[in-house]
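Before the break, one more example. Copy the sequence into your notebook; we will annotate it together after we see the structure.
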Amino acid sequence: MTTPVLICDDSALARKQMARSLPASLNAEVTFAQHGKEAMDILQSQQFTIMFLDLTMPEMDGYQTLQALRDAGIDMPVIVVSADVQPEAQKRVMGLGAKGFIRKPIDKPQLVELLKTLVVEPESDLDTVVQTVVTPKLKRRDIYMEVANVAIGRAADAMARHFDVFVHLPLPNVNLFEVSELHMTMRHLVSNDAMSGVCQGFSGEGIAGEALVLLSDSSVSQLANLLNYPESQEFDNELELLMDISNIMVGSFLQGIGEQAAVRFFQSHPVLLGQHVPIESLIEKTSGNWRKTMTFEVSYAIENTEIKCDLLLMFVDESLPLLDNKLSYLMEDH
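Here is what the structure looks like once it is written out:
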């Protein structure tokens, strides 16, 4: 007897990893959805024993999907599988009716224990043999998008815990840029407001690059007020704030990538590129450093504020073959 399973995630790699993490004894018949809207359409004509649901997706995210399931009266166990590991995110999904939460990358023993309570009797023998599921062949971009997604979640969690806020996770954006394209992206990210920018170098096992953290003046002042940074004539509290944010965001993002690539990254001390300056001034400071780069582009927003913080993590072109090799296991079929 087969077990109908619905996996909803916008990442091709995440869908594949989820399907292949299912124990063979579940005998799963898997259906995939790329976002919540597609999942709800599928549920109009099919029934499933269990659903696995990502949170950060286009069209309809995981929170909206859980609410839609509740509104439609669909009584089906849902396990959220997400890179957004903020305590508040977990609290919210459980409040919306999710029966479990698993952080990405998937912890298979945790998955098996959840399945024992939700799908089969506890005494049943659920082994952890890989489930045979046919999935589409992955592209290089699929790999890097999901790697970025996990790293985004780690950085958001670090910010949420440090600053006691809830951070809305963006969809990742990964591109191979010429330097002129990178500068166009920087211009696109910012408003007409004056900006402050911090640069931080990183390296590990021959893989190197730089990270840029960009905040508008309005975001810096709101963040300083939110965090109750004391006013002082002796210290530049805004500068201290910028350095703190850069260290937290860049460090946790690199840790998220490093966990997946088995690389320990080291960061240099953050360097101020400029405070209260036009974006063109910050672009000038980066013009001589790059020819081509693979860039992870992330825009974080803090709930109930207008604060937006942009992170650009750029790997030098020469590092890409090494990083590809470190992540090659994600391309494998088993």
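The chain has a mean pLDDT of 88. The chain has two domains: 3-118, 140-331. Try to locate both features in your own notes.
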